[in-house]
Amino acid sequence: MAKALVIINCIILAIGNCGGPLIMRLYFNNGGKRIWFSTFLETAGFPVIFIPLLFSYIHRRKNNNGGENATSFFLIKPRLLGAAIFIGILSGFDNYLYAYGIAYLPVSTAALIIASQLACIAIFSFFMVKHKFTPFTINAVVLLTVGAAVLGMHTETDRPVHETHKQYVLGFLVTVAAAVVYAFILPLVELAYQKAKQPLSYTLVLEVQMILCFLASIVSLIGMSIAGDFKALPKEAKEFKLGEVLYYVVAVFSAIIWQGFFLGAIGLIFCTSSLVSGIMISVLLPITEVLAVIFYHEKFQAEKGLSLALSLWGFVSYFYGEIKSDNDKRRIQQEEKESQETELPSLSSRTISEC
Known about the structure:
Radius of gyration: 24 Å
Strand content: under 5%
Structural class: mainly alpha
Number of helices: 14
Oligomer: single chain
Organism: Camelina sativa
Keywords: Membrane, Transmembrane, Transmembrane helix, Transport
Shape: globular
Subcellular location: Membrane
Family: Belongs to the purine permeases (TC 2.A.7.14) family.
Largest sheet: none
Membrane topology: Multi-pass membrane protein
Distance between the termini: 50 Å
């Protein structure tokens, strides 16, 4: 079941991680200009989480005999709720930074910056949740970071048309800030799980995700109100290059796809760790590069091919290390078990002889 959850979350994360930036860029490429509205779409799909939560509640009602978990629709307790509220507000501002960067950067440059957050995740994880490093983990982090750096070569030639140098530089710096903040958020979520003082389940993960996105959406709605987005959206929809209907279609699919990204990232933290979630995000970014080439006809330079190879190498290195570590633990446990079984008969014989 644990492996199945990991696979499911990886698939959900892959869809959101690859599709989110592309559909967001589609919005900006075709006349979209409202950054706070784009920020809102990153978390606006959270109501769909009510569906699995409802099924989970019905399942608990059927299988539990009048227990607290059976009668409560929500399992989250105040300690974890407080942490989720804080992280949700922080995520709202981080989402704005990311949307601002995507508005002014090509996908390749944005992918470069976001992939580089892996090094920050490793550092924050080490200090916040005491994540231990193995040679394979270090190798994976180095390979993925180098692969991300390779993507940065010749990115100036990919600068979007009709953008000033100042906008490009500002978008770059803001995206760096978004990467660092999200690198802090991932281990912060893992730390919140560790300090929750309540049994963790995937249902609880869904509740945390819903609260995070709800608070982030509130932050976005406040920003939209201040920026005047509510008045500007009808006009923007009519002037959208793909048509008014497709404007709202893009908005709906953007909300759904981005929800997959956040749900997959949070789910992987629950199943594994924040570092694994960060590595998975990084290894998927070169795939986003390939998709950008296909859909937006970006140039696939040799640097992008090298980055893809390095990222896949890092991905394989990490999981080989995890499999090896798991096998070593099982071998040690088996040896200890056999040792105990050998000692027990000899101890019994010694006791009998002494009697």
